[in-house]
Design a protein that fits this description.
With 196 residues, the chain is of the alpha/beta class. Helices cover 21% and strands 29% of the residues. It has a single domain (2-193), classed as Alpha-Beta Barrel (TIM Barrel), CATH 3.20.20. It contains five helices and nine strands. Strands 3-1-2-4-5-6-7-8-9 form a nine-stranded mixed β-sheet. The longest helix has 16 residues, at 164-179. It comes from Marseilla massiliensis.
């Protein structure tokens, strides 16, 4: 059994797959407690792998995103095998402090070490997409992680996209990318458009 915060149908709002229809499986629980996290860790319902596959299959999208919380605490090769058997392509969004299970088709690592210290040091060394939060103060690093794509995402400090502090962080992020073109800009388009 796995503890699931929610399962919902939406568009991927960040990174390489922005705008793609996806079913999100948000796992409850995390091994980190980031001050800017938007996930409710107090709730969650127990679901079997069969229950999860049945719930995501109710939607048209064949792209499922395992997210959290921290999905590596619960997602395993048995779940990914069941999702593949049901015809899903599987993406995972992780903080990188634990290895991903077998069967992940697209792995996004978003390290939190700059904000939380050594306890959040990533152990994953290879991913499809490295997405680092940019707050304008913390030095940008790739943490020694090899990725197909490198993204910087302005850290939403609360107050929404129109907030003056968020606007300054976004401008500084763009300036950094202009001087360091290996990095690409990732905006949280789900927040900009008001979708879940």
């Amino acid at each position: 059994m796995k503890r699931i915060n929610e399962i919902f149908n939406s568009l991927q709002g960040e990174g390489y797959n922005t705008g793609r229809a996806a079913v999100f499986v948000r796992f409850a629980g995390c091994n980190l407690r980031c001050p800017f996290c938007d996930t409710d860790f107090a709730t969650g319902r127990e679901m079997s792998d069969s229950d999860i596959v049945e719930a995501v299959s109710a939607y048209d999208a064949r792209f499922v995103v395992l997210t959290g919380g921290e999905p590596t605490l619960q997602a395993d090769a048995a779940l990914t095998a069941r999702l593949h058997e049901a015809g899903f392509e599987i993406a995972m969004e992780s903080n990188g402090t634990r290895p991903a299970p077998d069967g992940i088709d697209w792995l996004t690592i978003s390290p939190k070490q700059p904000f939380l210290g050594e306890a959040a040091r990533p152990v994953v060394r290879r991913c499809n997409e490295l997405k680092c939060l940019f707050d304008g103060r913390t030095p940008v690093t790739d943490f020694g992680i090899e990725a197909d794509y490198y993204y910087l995402q302005p850290c939403d400090m609360g107050g929404g996209p129109a907030d003056e502090r968020n606007r300054r962080i976004t401008e500084a992020c763009i300036d950094y990318i202009l001087s360091h073109p290996r990095w690409r800009l990732s905006l949280q388009t789900h927040k900009l458009t008001g979708i879940k």
